[in-house]
Amino acid sequence: MGTKVLIPVEEYLHTSYSPDCDYVDGELMERNEGEFDHADLQTEIASYLRARYRKEGFVAVVEQRVQVSATRFRVPDVWRDACAAADGADFPRAALGGNRDLSPEDRFSAIQVRVDDYLAFGVPNIWVVDPKGPTSLRLQPSGVAGIHGPHPPHHRRGHHPSAA
Question: Can you tell me the distance from the alpha carbon of 63 to that of 79, in angstroms, rounded to the nearest whole number?
């Protein structure tokens, strides 16, 4: 059995990873991503949130490192927060919402750990979306707040650039 190599928070914060990784108690945790459906849905959600909420003083960003505790950083697919954080500073508090688009390799137990981190941090709304599935979950501190489906009509499910 191999020994885990733990790295300090400062090293994580000053290192670029491709793709970026979550940081959990000194350990780097790979994130599943990379398929077209995942990237397309991530872009659609971020674009919608950015357009819908900018006038209300919010930003929507993709793959922004967010410190959810002293020893944990998560990289949600889409993060929505007040524009005050858009000055380049870290997001110092809980945002209004985070989003995780499922990849084929994602396991529910791993997603649940991420969701628990966001809830403990104080994020009031978390969406878990399956790009290939008909539904999504909206989670809040009180539990599952909604099961939604199908995906919004603006999401071009099944569209691939080579088919255009």
Answer: 8
